[in-house]
Structure formats: C-alpha cells, structure tokens
Design brief:
Chain lengths: 149, 203
C-alpha cells in the first residue's frame, strides 16, 4: 500500500497549485497537452476551486512558455461543435469548475521554445482583485496513455 | 408425502428448464446482437461522386472508401479540443479492435478548413494518432458537396484567427462506399468497439 500512497501523493503535489495559507483559488487535475505535429496551439484542462465566500472572476491566463493563452469554451448543440473565446470566467463562491474536452478549456498559443513531453508548463491565472494563481504540470502527449485510458 | 415429493421434483425441474431457457435466450441475444450507440440507417446510402485530395497529395474520390470500413470525422487541425479528442478516441477504439483480432477500420479526417489544412499538414497531424489515420482536404465546394450529402454542417467564423463550427458526428462508411451508420457526439470508445464489428458483419 505504501508505494501507491506515495505515488498518489507525488501526483497530487505535481499537479496541484496554491500556497500553504489556503488561497481563495486553487487548481487540481491539471493536464497540459503538447501541440500536435504541425500545429502551434494546444489545450490545457484543470479543475479550479474557489474556497472563498465570494465569486472569483478569472480575467487573464498566461504562460512564460507560450505567446498567449486564451480561455475558450467548446459546446455541442444539436450535434454541432462550436468554440468561442471567453473574456472572463466566474467561479462562484465555494464551488469548483471543471475544464473538460467539449467544454471550457485553455488554449495555449504559439510555444516560445521547443517543448518536449515532461517539460514543466507553468500557468499564471489572474483574477479580479489582483490575485494570481501560479501552477504547473508536466507536458503530456495525447497518445501517452495508450490503451489504458 | 410421495405425492408432495413428486410435485416438488416437477416444480424444480420446471424452474430449472425456465432458467436454462432464459439463459440460452440471453446468450443468444447478448454478444450477437445489440448495438450500444450506433444509429444504423434503414438503408445504406451510396456516397455521391466527389474529387478531393488525400494527405498523400493524390486524388481522393469515392473509390478510396471501397474495400474496407471507414470511420469518418469532419474536423480541422486548428481545433484544439474536440477534434484531437475525437481522433484520439477513434484511434483508441481501433487499437482495441486490433487486440481482439477483428477487421480494422480506416480513420479518415475530412477537413472543414481547406484554407489552412494542406495535405502536408494533415499528414503530419494524423501520423500522430497512429496507424490507419489519414486526412483528406481539397476544394471548398467539393468538401461542401460531400458534407451536405452526408448531413454534415460546417461554418467558418469571421476574423483572421477563425474557427470552424462543424458537426461532430462520426460516420461509418462501409466497404461499398455507402453511409451505413453513425455515432453521434459525444462518442464512446466501448460502444464503437462493440458496434463496429456488428456493422461489419451486416455490411
């Protein structure tokens, strides 16, 4: 049992953000995909948690390794996939917001250097009152999980 | 007591018979038959004639679909979310089918963004998803013709950094180049792995 526990703890440490003092905004389950061959954009997913008693408005996301990062939302209505850019994103007090395929996601645009799977990708999430959440996760390939899903 | 014992034996025998029949019926129907998610057309629809370009740069017409089943998805390489996730899911379904030894489908991405999706870019992009995945692009009018014949909608947004809204359905084209069935979005790997061999058996 011990190695399994150690692994899950390590994974939690690797993929979560936030300081020790209980920040209002934290992120878990961060997945950052590497751009596909021939492409200069990619997507990142995470779950954001607002542990405060007021709504948090995410206004801007950036990464030192990408020219820009945009908040996007895909939707599937009547079988049609659409995507639009979000100027801001509100996470209600005491609630979590999960980014997912076919829903909200971060679009990472134009890597500033060559990236390889395993590289640590840092993301900076700026929210309304000047707060900033810095988190990072290793770059993943989409194929990596293979048949194990 | 004797009469009671005989009645009990008969009841038990009858119950066993019913149980066995039910089991038999279930095993007959179970693995053989049920589609989990596929919507099967009452009658398969032949594809129209069209002239597009494969990622190898060669003409890609209806005939390229003949001789094997294909899972067809209309999308584009600049789509960071739904398109790669769908191709990944189809490639996963294919690799699972490979393990079970069934015939394998081709996976074909037909571009709804011919302006940016050149054959070279498609070749690079699809190689990433593994064996059996390839891309098709071509003249916008030809793409529209094929799409509308198959009930596929797509629409480019305004601006330089445009997006393309598009149907997210996965089409099953059979070995006679006919539209036989479809998987509505969001697709499910297990359902494709279950349903496609059934479609191949009937198509």
């Amino acid at each position: 049992m011990k190695p399994a526990f150690a692994c899950s703890l390590l994974l939690t440490l690797l993929t979560s953000c936030g300081g020790d003092v209980g920040p209002p905004l934290s992120a878990t389950d961060i997945t950052v995909f590497a751009p596909l061959p021939g492409r200069s954009t990619s997507a990142a997913y995470m779950t954001l948690h607002n542990d405060s008693d007021k709504a948090i408005i995410l206004t801007e996301v950036s990464s030192p390794l990408f020219a820009s990062v945009e908040m996007h939302e895909s939707s599937l209505t009547d079988g049609i996939a659409r995507m639009h850019k979000l100027e801001s994103l509100t996470i209600e007090a005491g609630s979590s917001m999960r980014f997912a395929v076919g829903a909200k996601h971060l679009m990472l645009i134009d890597p500033l250097q060559d990236l390889v799977p395993g590289d640590s990708i840092s993301l900076e999430l700026n929210y309304d009152d000047g707060g900033i959440l810095i988190c990072s996760a290793p770059l993943q390939t989409r194929r990596k999980r293979g048949d194990g899903e | 007591m004797n009469a009671f014992r005989r009645l009990l034996t008969l009841t038990l025998a009858a119950a066993a018979l019913v149980g066995m029949s039910l089991y038999w019926l279930q095993t007959m129907n179970g693995p053989r038959g049920e589609f989990e998610k596929a919507t099967v057309l009452p009658e398969s629809m032949p594809l129209p004639e069209f002239e597009l370009t494969g990622q190898d740069g060669l003409p890609f017409s209806k005939d390229r679909f003949r001789g094997k089943f294909s899972l067809v998805f209309f999308g584009f390489t600049h789509c960071p979310d739904i398109c790669p996730a769908t191709l990944q899911l189809l490639a996963l379904a294919r690799s699972r089918m490979a393990k079970s030894g069934t015939a394998l489908p081709d996976i074909v991405l037909i571009s709804v963004d011919p302006e940016r999706d050149t054959p070279e870019l498609l070749a690079k992009y699809t190689a990433y998803f593994g064996d059996g995945v390839s891309g098709v692009t071509g003249d916008l009018d030809e793409l529209k013709k094929l799409a509308s014949a198959l009930g596929i909608f797509f629409e480019k947004s305004a601006g330089e950094d445009y997006n393309v809204a598009h149907s997210a359905v996965v089409l099953v084209i059979n070995a006679d180049a006919e539209l036989q069935a479809l998987f509505s979005a969001p697709q499910d790997v297990n359902a494709i792995v279950n349903d496609l061999p059934l479609l191949m058996a009937t198509g």
